[in-house]
Amino acid sequence: MPIRQLPDVLINQIAAGEVVERPASVVKELVENALDAGARRVDIDLEEGGVRLIRIRDDGGGIAPGELPLAVSRHATSKIGSLDDLESVATLGFRGEALPSIASVSRFALVSRRDDDPHGAALEVDGGRVGDVAPRSHPRGTTVEVRDLFYNVPARRKFLRAERTELGHIEEWLRALALVRPDVELRVSHNGKPTRRYKGEDTLFSDARLAETLGRDFAQAALRIEHAAAGLHLTGWIALPTYSRASADQQYLYVNGRSIRDRSVAHAVRQAYADVLFHGRQPAYVLFLALDPARVDVNVHPAKHEVRFREARLIHEFVYRALHEALAGTRAGQNGQPGL
Ligand code: ADP
Ligand code: MG
């Protein structure tokens, strides 16, 4: 075959393979867009585990009618303009990939209105084919509708699991979000029935929110962590060894507000627990690490599940120390001796 340039729709569908694994990835990308737009409340309506329908409505800043086609174009973003911006990026998104990718593998609609616009506007995209912008009434904010995910990519559709399983992935991701953004109201419905509501709260990182998301048992066994050194700041909760888990299902790590997985940090945590947990048991934790954005590269993974620390060893040591000290304190306390 001769070399040829792929058409845009196909490029987007290929990119979708990296960004859109399942309905939960769509919910993640769309809710992150809502948060980046300053939403105070996000409604998440789902049908059939999100496969049939995902509708995300927010009360954020909205999109100008003339910019709707750009919003669904590849590499178009309002969040960065230069490599320098990327160094200090404070938004969850920045790659300008999510909407075109999602719109290329679904029946997609975007409706939005900004505060000062006389009315809203809508744009539909069917399997990557972009329609025309049309006026549509809408309150301030944005609604994105994603129907029939992967209807045009049978190979992908085959990998979707049962409705319950897909819904479970969505709920798990929302739980992780509710922990780090208790200030935003999240309302979820599934097949027309309200299933979950996280109220917007004033207090960040309250024990009540921990109990609501991960259960009373965790909250009761939780030690609050607060540790700072070398420009690194760690807060959150770790569970006492008495509340250990059979699997790593309650391990939440956030870096500058972004939920991520990191082997090195996970290892530091395991090491801190090494003396106090039975072999094979897993610790439970919710850790928020904050540091200068210039010290961490967030552009490592298309779905942004991972970051790269410029000083991985320093961070490993810092996390280990913070947790080791907290856990040592409780052991001493249990023996009736003063903490270390
Ligand atoms: P990214 O988030 O990386 O910029 P996306 O493809 O997710 O890329 O979105 C493209 C652009 O569309 C965003 O940069 C933003 O300007 C706009 N946009 C998307 N969703 C929303 C929303 N819910 N509210 C306001 N603007 C949005
Ligand atoms: Mg985005």
From TrEMBL:
The chain holds residues 1 to 340 of 613 of the full protein. GO terms for biological process: mismatch repair. This is DNA mismatch repair protein MutL. This protein is involved in the repair of mismatches in DNA. It is required for dam-dependent methyl-directed DNA mismatch repair. May act as a 'molecular matchmaker', a protein that promotes the formation of a stable complex between two or more DNA-binding proteins in an ATP-dependent manner without itself being part of a final effector complex. Belongs to the DNA mismatch repair MutL/HexB family. It comes from Luteimonas deserti. Residues 210-328 form the DNA mismatch repair protein S5 domain. GO terms for cellular component: mismatch repair complex. Keywords: DNA damage, DNA repair, Endonuclease, Hydrolase, Nuclease. GO terms for molecular function: ATP binding; ATP hydrolysis activity; ATP-dependent DNA damage sensor activity; endonuclease activity; mismatched DNA binding.
